[in-house]
Write a structure and sequence with these properties.
The structure holds 2 protein chains of 2 kinds. By secondary structure, chain A is of the alpha/beta class. Chain A contains 21 helices and 26 strands. The chains are: A alpha/beta, B mainly alpha. At the A-B interface, helix 1, strand 1 and strand 4 of A face helix 1 and strand 1 of B. Strand 1 of chain A pairs antiparallel with strand 1 of chain B.
């Protein structure tokens, strides 16, 4: 074809395409009679609860009329519905107080995702190849009930396993009740970035096995130890709100903020002073500060109380942590240790925050205990400007609840090992509720290989991911906007909070609320479970009926549905787990962190971190978050490895070069991101990309840093030590376009006087 | 070609309604537009086009022997709604927002903008609404002529 005829053809086909699209499409539409009365053009705001992380922020959802494409009786057409259009933070909610993070804003895409599972599916191909046939709810439920009845007939109820994520609301309580009544062990809760080390440390130091809440608005000085509390850790929106007030909320007083970490986080980038330390020595620095405070008689050692007593040498003045020794261990100059100690003691109130990487070393518990002791020493526990524990509504104390507490579950790594060794305790049936351990667990645990051996797997998830693609049956849940939403936040407020909200909109697809599906399964078993509720709504209303009303004549349940929850003082008897008794543990001392990999062969520490967009990767399917530039690097739609400029120069690595990162457990190739905010012996990578199966937006994009991680464990708690792997780095080739930046790279401005 | 041209000018193509709705019959029977069929006109920005459910409130009992009524009764039985098309409306590039409710409260007659519907069967686009018409009326009625009143 010559050029002239090509242009002619383009013109002709373009015009005819334009003409074809000009006719009025509305002429060809079929409309179905709407199910509800809708006033067009009027928006109403309804409460809900953000489900994307455990912080439990309250939402205000803008709901308005919309036309939805639906299929009814095999006929495609349009249905006028009331649809959620925009999510904002609920101004009345005590956790987020009107704020909402970017991830929460993007949560609206969960409901309208083009790859959402719209109806029950039954596996048609081999496990993992993703071929499924549609199946009716009746057939699907009958199949699950048959499996559970078969286990019950042989007295093998313990062979039911339930994998879920960390949660503290009614949903988690219902799952536990279901398993307890059936006779199965409790749900296996696995999170890559778990906070169990903090919880354990707080149980030991303060008698509260719980994440802390920080009174940032009233504090004068914040000392952060690795905690990305403005980005991803604990209750970020609540902490951002408090941080803003700390900096600018009090006339004449601007709180100071120093961050100690080995890779600059989004939070560290906000600090007045950034203190890099050797990975795994954060606890030593905290005790170095305590040593100076005690020896300079700024505070008496016995102010440390129970938390101080847990540290070896506390009563004798912490001789092992004099500034010179701390300098040798941490790399922080002795003079700086002394200055920070005086600042921390003199600027009252002051609070230290630890979270994230420092706890993901083999000595993580020690670091957490050291920071707890430092907080206790300066009197910042349960005091204005210090740390608090949110009073917890104890769901187990609600009267309609009946016994049947499930047995303690195995950890995920033990479960996988049991299955692979084909022991008698290997599960026969596995339920998966939103967890994706095949993606987030270290490869050495062989979670995928183990799950493939389980005879029957049912998943309740709304999307096919690396774990749910192994399922034999998929029973898709409603989205959070289509079902009852609830949450009992562990932290983020100084009053007790129980969030609840009715469905915001009718379900778009043939999905069912997992909580109600479990209740129905329980009723239809050969030996029905005696759960006290017919529906999840009944369970919620039973709880709220026992909570005190805001005013004398008000009804708590009605009020809570309108406001999006209940908050206030808990009556006696409903408060959360009692204080844990003082545990007899020997005092803790610093031990060198252990790392997997020979330092000669693998010279760099490797630090995966929770991504601002995707957290642990569970949000990589939302396109708004894929296209959101990372706040520090401006990278989007891609993976990268952060590397110090001096190290990069030594290895001949430039910005965007393809480099290989290898540990003793795996290797991956990705783009180099030259970043001044990282120690020279450390490389770091955000989690979230590198999904094999996770919708059209995340599948096959970037690399998953979990592939490199060694199965190291925190020495005392056994928690997964995800920051304890060593790697080697080598250049493979020049930039090949795999790194996508929204703006330029990172600027470095050195301050030489520090 | 003419459809493309009209589209280019930002005019809506003449609507093709699912049934020939006789406005004149209903107006003659003193069925108030704003109380029965376009009831959201008093509360919101959009007048609303009635669902087949609205028709059946009366036509379950009235005029059930007429072919058009039998047609919509059959539709409802199948769960199908009337795919009404809007007759009026602005093209997107004019960036204007119109809210019916304040005009109803200011006692502007429907006919001011929509012509004498009571003499029409199927509603036709027979009043040309341009910015001049809006501003003239706003001046006459001493309503705001600030740009942001309509363009926001």
């Amino acid at each position: 074809m010559d050029r002239r005829s090509f242009i002619k053809l383009t013109a002709v086909s373009g015009t005819s395409a334009a003409l074809a699209s000009c006719g009025n499409l509305e002429n060809h539409l079929i409309r179905f009679v709407p199910d509800e009365d809708i006033v067009p053009g009027i928006a109403v705001w309804k409460p809900s609860v953000c489900p994307l992380c455990p912080a439990g922020c309250g939402l205000s959802v803008r709901v308005m009329d919309a036309d939805a494409d639906v299929v009814r009786n095999g006929q495609a057409g349009i249905l006028r519905i009331l649809a959620a259009k925009k999510l904002e933070g609920s101004p009345a909610h005590p956790i987020n107080q009107g704020g909402l993070c970017a991830r929460g804003q993007a949560a609206i895409q969960v409901t309208y995702h083009p790859d959402r599972i719209t109806q029950p599916l039954k596996r048609a191909g081999n496990r993992g190849d993703g071929r499924y046939d549609a199946i009716s709810w009746d057939d699907a439920l009958a199949e699950v009930i048959l499996r559970l009845d078969a286990l019950e007939e042989t007295g093998d109820q313990k062979a039911l396993a339930f994998a879920t994520r960390h949660g503290s609301g009614h949903r988690a309580a219902l799952i536990a009740q279901f398993l307890g009544h059936y006779g199965a062990p409790g749900p296996i809760r696995y999170e890559l970035f778990d906070d169990d080390v903090v919880r354990r440390a707080n149980a030991l130091s303060f008698g509260r096995e719980q994440l802390p809440t920080f009174d940032l608005p009233n504090t004068r000085f914040v000392l952060g130890f690795g905690a990305d509390f403005l980005g991803t850790w604990n209750s970020p929106v609540s902490q951002n709100h408090g941080y803003g007030l700390m900096r600018q909320g009090r006339p004449g007083i601007r709180g100071a903020f120093v961050q100690v970490e080995s890779r600059m986080t989004q939070t560290g980038a906000n600090a007045d002073e950034w203190v890099p330390v050797r990975p795994g020595t954060e606890g030593t620095l905290a005790l170095g500060l305590a040593q100076v405070i005690i020896s300079a008689k700024l505070r008496p050692a016995d102010a440390g109380g129970r938390a101080g007593a847990l540290i070896e040498g506390w009563t004798t003045g912490l001789k092992a942590y004099v500034p010179e020794q701390v300098e040798r261990l941490t790399g922080v100059a002795a003079s700086r240790v002394e200055r920070l100690a005086h600042q921390f003691a003199d600027m009252r109130p002051a609070v230290a925050i630890i979270g994230g990487p420092p706890l993901a070393h083999t000595n993580g518990l020690f670091s957490a205990l050291a920071v707890n002791a430092l907080n206790a020493l300066v009197g910042s526990v349960e005091q204005p400007g210090g740390l608090f524990f949110t009073p917890q509504l104890n769901l187990a104390a609600v009267p309609t609840r009946q016994g049947a507490v499930p047995a303690a579950p195995r950890s995920l790594d033990r479960l996988a090992a049991d299955i692979l060794s084909a022991g008698p305790s290997a599960p026969q049936v596995l339920f998966i509720d939103g967890a994706n351990p095949v993606y987030t667990a270290p490869r050495a645990w062989k979670v995928r290989e183990a799950f493939e051996k389980i005879p029957y797997i049912a998943s309740f998830g709304s999307f096919l991911d690396e774990t749910s693609i192994l399922a034999d049956l998929i029973l898709p849940d409603h989205s959070f906007l289509e079902s009852w939403a609830d949450g009992v936040p562990e932290s983020g407020a100084t009053v007790a909070v129980a969030s609840v909200a009715p469905p915001v909109m009718s379900p778009l697809h043939q999905t069912r609320a997992t909580v109600d599906v479990l209740l129905e399964i329980g009723r239809r078993l050969r030996r029905p479970l005696t759960l006290p509720w017919q529906t999840f709504e009944e369970m919620l209303s039973a709880t709220f009926a026992v909570l005190p009303p805001a005013t004398k004549d008000a009804d708590t349940w009605t009020d809570a549905q309108e406001k999006g929850g209940w908050w206030g003082s808990l009556p006696a008897g409903l408060t959360g787990p009692a204080e844990t008794a003082t545990l007899a543990t020997p005092p803790h001392a610093f031990t060198e962190p252990q790392f997997d990999g020979d330092p000669q062969q693998y010279p760099f520490h490797f630090l995966p971190y929770s991504s601002s967009a995707f957290l642990d990767g569970s949000l990589a399917h939302l396109p708004w978050l894929q296209e959101m530039p990372d706040p520090l690097t401006s990278a989007m739609w891609s993976s990268w490895v952060e590397i110090n400029p001096a190290t990069a120069e030594r290895l001949g690595i430039g910005q965007g070069d393809v480099i290989e990162i290898a540990s003793a457990h795996g290797a991956l190739r990705t783009a180099a991101m030259i970043s001044p905010g990282i120690a020279p012996d450390l490389v770091s990578m955000p989690l979230g990309q590198g999904h094999q199966t996770f919708t059209r937006y995340a599948s096959g994009r970037g690399e998953n840093p979990v592939a490199l991680l060694a199965p190291m464990a925190e020495a005392t708690t056994g928690a997964f030590a995800w920051a304890a792997t060593r790697v080697r780095v080598s250049r493979v080739g020049g930039p090949d376009g795999r790194l996508i930046l929204f703006a330029g790279g990172m600027r470095e401005e050195l301050e030489h006087d520090r | 070609m003419s459809a493309a041209f009209i589209d280019f000018l930002g005019r809506r193509p003449p609507p093709e309604q699912p049934i020939e709705f006789p406005h004149n019959v209903h107006v003659a029977k003193k069925i108030a537009c704003t109380e029965y069929c376009h009831e959201s006109v008093t509360t919101g920005p959009v007048a609303g086009l009635p669902s087949v459910r609205t028709c059946m409130i009366c036509h379950d009992a009235i005029a059930t022997d007429r072919p058009r009524i039998q047609q919509i009764t059959a539709m409802r039985a199948k769960g199908l709604d009337l795919a009404w098309q809007r007759v009026y409306g602005y093209p997107a590039p004019s960036h204007v927002k119109f809210n019916h409710a304040p005009h109803i409260r200011a006692k502007v007659e429907c006919a001011t903008c929509h012509g004498n519907i009571g003499e029409q069967t199927v509603a036709r686009h027979n009043v040309d609404l341009n910015m001049g018409a809006c501003v003239t009326c706003h001046i006459e009625k001493k309503a705001s002529i600030d740009c942001l009143t309509c363009h926001f």
